[in-house]
Structures are given as C-alpha cells and as structure tokens.
TrEMBL record:
Signal peptide: none annotated. Coiled coil: none annotated. Pfam families: fn3. This is FNDC7 protein. InterPro entries: FN3_dom, FN3_sf, Ig-like_fold. CDD domains: FN3. PROSITE patterns: FN3. The lineage of its organism: Eukaryota, Metazoa, Chordata, Craniata, Vertebrata. Residues 1-88, 89-175, 176-261, 262-347, 431-518 form the Fibronectin type-III domain.
Length: 687
C-alpha cells in the first residue's frame, strides 16, 4: 500500500462541501477523502489534489482525513483536520412596495451572526447599495422606478466568515404615468385618453368614473379609447401603470365633462301679443347655454342663443314652424332631440269685397290666405245669422233681409289650428225692401194716383205703368204719387220700386191682376263650387220675377230674381234636392213649376296630404266624406299631367314615374258620373 498522505490545508467555501489540499504520494493512484461529524461520515474518492467532499451539512464541524490508494491497497488515514462548513444562504422573499423601493426579507440562518445584502441595477448602471444587518429584513429606497435590480445576500458567522450567497432579480413597480390628456368625441360620446409612457410599465389601466358608473380600459400602449359615455355627466379619469412587480399609484384624476343631453319638456305657446311665440324647455345638467332653431314652412330659419330656458320668436299667421332645441357646453353640442312642429292660426282674409247680385243676395269674394283649408262667411244683422262655409274663396249669402245693415266677416279655418277668430268684419247694407201697392185710384181722365206702404228709410219710390202703349213713371219720397197723361183705353201693369244709397229694391207686385205667366220650358242646373249652384231657365211668357228653390231634408236654398238665372248658395254637397220655380207676373200672379230632381256633387275630400314614395313617385292621401264615393287625383305640372283613381273604398292612390324637379298642382275630386270633371275642390302644391 502507498504511504500516508499529509493534509496541507482543508477549508469550506460552500455550505455543503469542504475542499482538501495535500502533497502527492508516490505510487498512489487514488485518494479517499473522509468527512465525519457526530452523526455521520461521507467518503469521496478523487485522483489528485485538491479534492472536495460534498453533501455536507452547513455550519457543521467535520473531522477530515485522507488515504492514498493503489493496487496494493489503502494507506492508513492521515492525521485529521477539523473544518467547519460555512453558513447556508438565506432564502430571500422580495417585493417592491413602491415605485422607488424594494423590500427584502428572509428566515433566520443557523449559526448566523449577521447578514449582508446588496442591491444593484441588473444592467450595471449606477452604484451598488449594500447593507449589513442582524435583522431578517431590509428595505432599499431611492431606487429607479420600473427598473430590474439584482439582490445578493449571505450570512456570516461569529468569526465573520461569509456563507453561501443567494441571488434574486426584482423589478421595482412603475411610476405613475405623466401628462395625462383626455380628448372627447362629442358625436360618438367616447373619449380617448393618452399619456407619456412610464419606465418599466408593461400594461396600463384607465379608470373613468362618475360616482355611479365606473368604466375601465386596459392596454399595453400609451392611449386607450373609452366608449359609451353618458351625456350630461362629469367623469374623473385616472391612469395606473402595471408590471410584474405591481402597480403604480393612480394619476391625479382629470375631470371630463361630457356634452349635455338633449333638452326635454319642450313647449310652444302663442303669447298675448299677436305674432309672438314662446318656446320653453327644462334645464339640462352641464348645459351652459342653449340654441333654439325655428324653421318656417317657407324655408326661412332663425335662431335664439340664450342661457335661460325660454326664447321668444316672432311668428306669422298660417305658417308651420319646426322647432329644435340644442344645449351646449365646452364639450360641444347635445344630441338632436325631438323636432316639434307648431302651426299658427291661418291668416284673415282682409281684402274681401261684397257685391249684391240681387236685393237679398250678396256675393263675397276674397283673395286666398296662407294656412287656410276652409272659410266661413258670417252675415250678422236683423233677426238672424246667415252662414256659408266653403273651400273656395267666394261665398254667396242669400235670403238676406232687405233694408238691413249687416256685419259680414270671413273667418279662416285650418285642420291643424282651427279658426282664426280675430278677423275684422265689414259693414254692408242691403237694398230697400220692395214697396207694397195698397191702392190705385183714378183722379182724372189721365191721372192715376198710386198709394203704397212705406217701410224703408231714406228711400225714393218710383212707380211705373207698363203697357202696350208704353211706359209712364212717377216718383216720390212719401207714400203716393200720380201718373200723368196716361192714354185711355189701355191695359197697364203698375208697379213700384224703392231706391236708396244701398241699392234698388225689387219691384212691387203689379196691379191689376193678369193671367198667370208661363213656366220656363228649359231649366239647367250647374254646380259652381261645392256650396254654390247656378240655375238658369228660359224666359216664361208673362213672368216678371222668378223664385227658384232647391229643397232637401238638410235645408232649403232659394233666390228671387228678375233674371232667368240665379246663384244659390248654402248648397250641401252630396245631397239630392227637389227643384221648384215660381214665375210671378207683374200683378203678383204666381205659377209654381216643378222639374226633375237635382243631386249636388259629392263632397270634396278633406285632409289631402302628399307623401313621397321615391324620387319619381308620390302617394296622395285624403279623408273621404263617404266610403262609397270614388275619387280621382289629378297631378298637373309644366312637364306633364298625371292622374290616378283608386278602387272603391280606398282613400289613397299612387302616381309614379313623374318627372322630378317640377312644381305640381294636385286636386282630389269626386268622380262625376255625368257631366264635366269637377274643378272646384281645393288644390295642393307639391314640389
């Protein structure tokens, strides 16, 4: 066996091993190292010096021996050396409690008298921080935020011998982002939040809160879009940075006020002063001021800018106004709310003319006014009120009382607004009443005294004797006059009329009595407007005046005239009438004539409206007065005429393929079974 080797030195650099150095022994091929403590021993075979025994316990005293080995056997153990293993490394627990600090803690190490902990940036920049302590925790401050640091720690014993070290990499949490900006998109009710990137941050979280609702947006970039914001709200926006070490403090909250909501509870009313509208609404949160847009039917638009919740506008009669209210603040304009329309009362016909067509009939005409769908003419005077309603701009008031002052007023109506009751009347006086001859007496050979009943004021009476020999007249402001120089042996018809500044009365009945006059052979009725019918007839031999009457269960219309034609007002549309005529001679002899019945035309439809179907089509809609009536819609323009007739019972029809860019006149009228097409129904303009 080889010689016994001699240990030069033995030491421990790691807590689980001891290294031994010796001089080589001639003839030895291997060496056996033995480490023994009170509980165990460990052997290790090595080829040469130095050799290391591993698998040892830290901070433990070992007896170290060595033997040399060759093919002849083993030598005796060398003299032992006592060597203690170094301390075990502390096991670190590391975290970053803030963006500029790292906290290190560990459990106590057996036989440790103290600990040494060092911190340095992993990229080698900056200086190393080192702390010695007997505690089991340390906090390193004033570090760079979001930076990766390498932490190394070891324990040392009472002799100051260091043990194993422990290395750990830890990143500090990021700093809060800076320069937070909020860009608000008022149209989409969303916000884009941006900021300057912060060192070491991996992700960011944006929090948008208004106290009741909290919205979040997570991103790895330096901006984030937050959708679905609410109007009239104030949000507080903050940004937090994150990495594997934790989160930064939230940034200081940035206030974001969104656009105001659309105003509600909008009301429109006419003020006491004519021609003024008051628009009011409820106050809107975060609304700094309001703008009201009022657009009239002719396309003219005005607006009002105010910080209050009401606006005053000038208005005109017969217009439909479309009203929208917007609220504004620094963020922008509120969304579009409800669009309200308000129609003012139709205008009053002011330039109307009243012309007497006979002593008891007046025809009133006027120019059409804006906004009117229907007109009502009222004649107030005497003991009764005479009414006439029509869509036309003319009306005939018949059966008026003679020698009577009337106040005639034309009122306008619209379906949307009703009647304009502020229209001014016009004074009209009827002609004098016809005088009534009471007695004719002969005063001389050629002198005849005529006496009558005087029932008119400021009237002059004219008596006429008419016969084959000619005409004779006398006049007086009293109640009698004398006809002079009449030829003898002639038959005369004597009558009287009254004249005044208001006009001339109908002649009185003639005296003496003569045979009854002939009935006219031909009588023709034609409808002028929906409420006016023209009657004409052939001359009846011996007749001086005529009384025509149209009668139905709904009422009676008649006129008394010298002519062989007459305009009858107050005719009801769609009604069957019985037709009668009385021919009256000069002496008051009357013939009653009957004729075939007469049916007035069907009523014009109401509520005519036009709806656009496409670029080349419209739908005409109306309210039928009777479901059994067929209607025809005519569309006339400069580029062509079109018409449509729906099936029975329908209240609309479509007209297609019409040229665009034209102005058309649309008339919806009942379909006439006989006679010409009706033209007096109201017209609508469509562009």
């Amino acid at each position: 066996a080889p010689d016994i080797p001699v240990i030069d030195q033995a030491y421990s650099k790691l807590s689980n091993s001891i290294t031994v150095e010796w001089r080589a022994v001639p003839g030895a091929t291997y060496y056996m190292l033995t480490a023994q403590d009170e509980d165990s021993f460990i052997e290790t075979v090595v080829k040469n010096s130095p050799g290391t025994v591993t698998g040892l316990k830290p901070a433990t005293l070992y007896r170290i021996t060595i033997r040399s080995i060759n093919s002849g056997g083993k030598s005796q153990p060398s003299p032992f050396r006592k060597v203690k293993t170094v301390l075990a490394a502390p096991i670190l627990s590391v975290h970053s409690p803030s963006c500029d600090s790292i906290a290190v803690s560990w459990k106590s190490v057996h036989m440790a008298a103290g600990f040494s902990v060092s911190v340095m940036r992993s990229d080698g920049l900056g200086r190393m921080l080192k702390e010695n302590t007997t505690n089991t925790s340390l906090v390193f401050t004033n570090l760079d935020p979001g930076t990766l640091y390498t932490i190394k720690a070891y324990a040392w014993n009472a002799n100051g011998v260091p043990g194993d070290d422990f290395t750990y990499n830890q990143r500090t949490s990021p700093n809060a982002p800076e320069d937070v900006k909020v860009a608000f998109n008022s149209g989409a009710l969303r916000a884009v939040v941006s900021w300057m990137p912060t060192e070491g941050a991996l992700t960011y979280s944006v929090t948008v809160s208004n106290g009741l609702l909290k919205l979040r947006c997570n991103t790895s970039s330096a901006s984030c879009m937050v959708p679905s914001l609410q109007c009239s709200s104030e949000y507080y926006v903050s940004v937090t940075a994150y990495n594997d070490a934790g989160s930064s403090k939230p940034t200081d909250a940035v206030s974001l006020k969104t656009i105001p909501c659309a105003p509600v509870n909008i009301s429109i009313e006419e003020e006491e002063e004519p021609g003024h509208l008051l628009v009011s609404w409820s106050s809107v949160s975060f609304g700094h001021y309001y703008v009201v847009f009022v657009k009239s039917g002719d396309g003219l638009e005005v607006h009002c800018n105010t910080s209050y919740t009401q606006c005053h506008f000038q208005s005109d009669c017969g217009f439909t106004y479309f009203i929208t209210v917007f609220a504004y603040n620094k963020a922008g304009q509120s969304p579009l709310g409800d669009v309200f329309n308000y129609t003012t009362a139709p205008c009053c016909p002011s330039d109307f003319r009243a012309v007497f067509t006979s002593s008891d009939t007046v025809r009133v005409t006027w120019a059409p006014v804006r906004g009117a769908d229907l007109y009502e003419t009222r004649a107030a005077g005497g003991s009764r009120l005479v009414l006439c309603k029509d869509t036309a701009t003319a009306c005939t008031l018949s059966a008026l009382q003679c020698n009577t002052p009337y106040n005639i007023t034309v009122y306008s109506f619209s379906e949307a607004r009703g009647s304009n009751t502020s229209c001014a009347p016009q004074y009209v006086a009827t002609a004098p009443c016809s005088p009534e001859i009471k007695n004719i007496s002969k005063e001389g050979l050629s002198i005849i005294s005529v006496q009558w009943q005087s029932n008119n004021e400021e009237a002059t009476y004219v008596v006429t004797a008419r016969g084959e020999a000619g005409l004779w007249h006398c006049a007086s402001t009293g109640n009698s006059c004398s006809l002079m120089d009449l030829p003898c042996g002639s038959a005369f018809s004597v009558s009287a009329i009254a004249r005044s500044p208001a006009g001339q009365s109908l002649p009185s009945y003639s005296v003496p009595l003569e045979t009854a006059p002939c009935c006219p052979k031909d009588l023709i009725l034609s409808q002028v407007t929906q409420s006016v019918t023209n009657i004409s007839w052939s001359v009846g031999m011996g007749a001086q005046t005529y009384v025509t009457t149209l009668e139905s269960p709904k009422g009676q219309a008649k006129c008394h005239t010298l002519q062989n034609y007459c305009l009858l007002g107050c005719i009801t549309c769609g009604t069957n009438y019985t037709v009668s005529l009385r021919a009256i001679s000069e002496t008051g002899v009357t013939s009653s004539c009957t004729y075939h019945g007469y049916s007035s035309s069907a009523c014009c439809p109401s509520g005519v409206k036009l709806y656009r179907l496409s670029n080349n089509g419209i739908r005409v809609f109306w309210r039928a007065s009777d479901e059994t009536i067929n209607y025809n819609a005519d569309l006339r323009g400069s580029k062509g005429n079109f018409s449509c007739t729906p099936s029975s019972g329908l209240n609309h029809c479509d007209i297609t393929e019409i040229p665009c860019g034209d102005v058309y006149t649309v008339v919806v009228a009942p379909v006439a079974h006989k006679g010409p097409k009706l033209t007096f129904c109201p017209k609508k303009i469509y562009s």
